[in-house]
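Section 3.1 - Work completed
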Amino acid sequence: MDGIRVAWRERHLVDFVCGCKVSLFKDEFIKQSLMMFLASMAGCVCSYLYQVYVGRALGPEGYGVFGSLFALFYLISIFSCTVQAGAAKFISRFNASGDQDGINAFFYCLMKKSATLGVAGFAAFCLVSPIIANFLKIGSEVDLVILGTVILFTFVTPAAGGMLQGLQMFYWLALASFLGLAGKLFFGVALVNLGYGVTGAIGALAISALVTFLLSIYPVSAYLTRRQNGDVCSLNDLYTYSLPAIVIMICLAAPSNLDVILVKHFFQGYEAGIYTAASVMGKIIMFLPAAITTVMFPKAAEMNCLGKSTFRLLNKCLICTCLLSGSAAAAFALYPRIVIMIFGSGYSDAAFITMIYVALMFLFSMIIVIAQYCLATNDLIYTYLIGFFTLFEMGIITIIHETILQVSEELLAINLILLILSYAFVVYRRRVHVLANDSDSSV
């Protein structure tokens, strides 16, 4: 009798495990997230090898200069993130309703506007480069001009990337992202090794931007030719959406980039280099769940457009993010001296700051998920909450900055409060939405 019971349990256990495997295999969200995750991880490896090589080759002082320029590059890319998020949202809406003519007209109009803004942005950046060089205490403006060329691709590349994301062409999106980052590593190592220093490291960013653009535009180029002459497209809705979206994107980039710029301004070259190394290690935590938000965004936008509940999708993404980022943060907490192993003995003072920074980025990775969710579901009131905290963070750093350790501790405390309030905001807004729907139904 006991043997029969054991056999019965084993059989049902096997059925359960097999059922879970089949369920996971058929879960499109899991498959697409896994593909984007693998591409993202491969890209992150290339990106961090690039950062490590540059950090070791230039030393703390040179790396401090590079770090501030790279942070500036990341802030410039905020506008590209906004374009991609907006394009993905509206393309998802057209795709959900089966409006192919709308997709063609929207993409053509967006590419035309984006190219115009890219050229104008490059010219404006070159004009203000002397002011930026003076603020960052950089002797040469050549590096800034080279960095400015990235702006030419900052707008047009995300327009194509948003098209890929909105149409859920994640294979091409993953390929373009990975090969762009791999190109940054290859050309960065080559140019720095040839003796071009900071200039070569920044030049690799421009080449990488070109590679990413070419790979992003290729699979969707046919949509530009499918547009009919009579098609009329207005981007007014995109402009209305983009303003608060830009604010949110700026706020998402600020805690891990503006702090590096401010530290470069307030502290000596060695301390700025140490802080930059710690921030680079901490950003691993932030970039790990990037694949999850990339897949979540168009799905949440499409579900919201169709009137479906998206709260369970958010919680699934937060759990996955917590597992990924939390595991990495725990590893850094156990082995904080890994920053010395990677960057060299010249960065020995960065170990303890790295522990605090990875904890900060763990909290911030989940804030990013919530912010992207609010953008996808068009809940732009969240802009006020994250905007206030970002201004508060930068104000605190500007006023209180006795040591770089103090700066990282301030950011950690503020982002803990922001995460708690962000999730409470989403829960509250969901409850309000449910009550409003119940009222409509009763009427």
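Second construct:
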Amino acid sequence: MPPLDPDALDLAPSGPVYDQWHAVTYMRLLDADAEGAGWREVVRTVLHIDPEREPDRARQAFESHLARARWAAREGYRHLLRRGWPRSTRARRG
């Protein structure tokens, strides 16, 4: 399963591994957008970037990740369903 709160890159790349790793991030971004949350609050909380210290980086990261989240919600989820979640590297206890 993907982590619940991973750090994000400055730009959201287009790639299945990053998308799988950030599935929860994308859902959080889409929820915040639907609720009308301010981008500064969202980027600080979800992407872990201080918009006061790094406004250009924060805005760019926010916009690229939100765009990727919208793409994933529209059509990217099909790729995830075909491939499935990556297996954990930790051994299962049983």
